[in-house]
Amino acid sequence: MSQRFRQSGRGRRNLRAVRSLDGRPMPSIATHLKQGLASDVRAIFNDSARGETPVAPSDDALFGPETAIRRVHADVTSMIIGGIAALLMQMLHPSALAGIWDHSRFRGDMLGRLRRTARFIAVTTYAQRSEAEAAIASVNAAHGHVHGARPDGIPYSARDPALLAWVHVTEGLCFLDAWQRYGDRRLTTREESDYFTQFGVIAAALGADPIPRNRGEAIALVASFRPELIATDRSKEVARLILSPPQTPVHLLPAQRIAGAAAVDLLPRWAARMHGLAMPRLLKPLVRTGAFGLAGTLRWAFR
């Protein structure tokens, strides 16, 4: 081995051992990337201007650490993709759409709307029991002010048990389906039923009825709502804002587009067609590959 080569080798080893002025090891590039990505994602879900920080898991939560609901709701990618898909489905119900349209600032604050929904799911899944119960009470109180008449003259109320059941079942199916496709370990049939039973505890506290206890009941409940669903100019405008939130930071746009495409891919075909979002079959493998990559990257960032 030449003297130059040995010196070069020592140089490479020295580069790996770069230390700061106080003698501590300098973070690697990979560490900077992980921290930056995790910070970006936390900023999406937590409004720092309001002092929000990530929800801390508690051993005194509504659900234990090893439950199916905590496993599913812990996966960032599954919750993003599933959450977008659930919102797209929900907006096909004219009463759900009217409630959002008449009583929400979503057109100017879609990010805020998504944050509030995500935080409610996190608090009721992981936070201390008292915090979860307070969050449920707050939502129940807010729902008391959400009522009116749809454009077709039919009255609606956010306290309607059937409407709450529609919101619940779309979230449950979409969160679970996103996990089963992009999570790191598929749930068994029994664990799926456990998930619906556990998520149903929150739905019952909000006043939803009926509440599915397994996948079969959830699919049947969605089918029972189909005659009531309709696509309108309003639902398409909301869908556009859901898929392209105007406040998305530029450097996160590629990830946001992957998640949106994966959410459309997750929808039942009939729902995608109603929104005018049917995806060509040849495009689906590319979308799923991108979403798998996003899921792996986010798990790496939060590991």
Descriptive account of the structure:
The protein is mostly helical and 303 residues long. 64% of the residues lie in helices and 2% in strands. The protein is built from 14 helices and two strands. It has helices at 3-16, 29-45, 68-73, 76-90, 94-103, 110-126, 129-143, 161-182, 189-206, 215-225, 233-243, 253-266, 269-274, 284-302, and strands spanning 147-149, 155-157. The chain has a two-stranded antiparallel sheet. α4 runs antiparallel to α8, α4 (76-90) crosses α12 and α8 packs antiparallel against α9. The radius of gyration is 22 Å and the shape is globular. Residues 1-18 have low confidence and may be disordered.
The helix/strand class is mainly alpha
Low-confidence stretches: 1-18
Strand content: under 5%
Mean pLDDT: 87
Count of extended strands: 2
Strand order of the largest sheet: 1-2
Query: How many angstroms separate the termini?
Result: 41 Å
Secondary structure: helix percent: 55-70%
Q: Radius of gyration in whole Å, from Cα? A: 22 Å
Describe the biggest sheet? 2 strands, antiparallel
Shape: globular
So how many helices?
A: 14
Order of helices and strands: HHHHHHHEEHHHHHHH
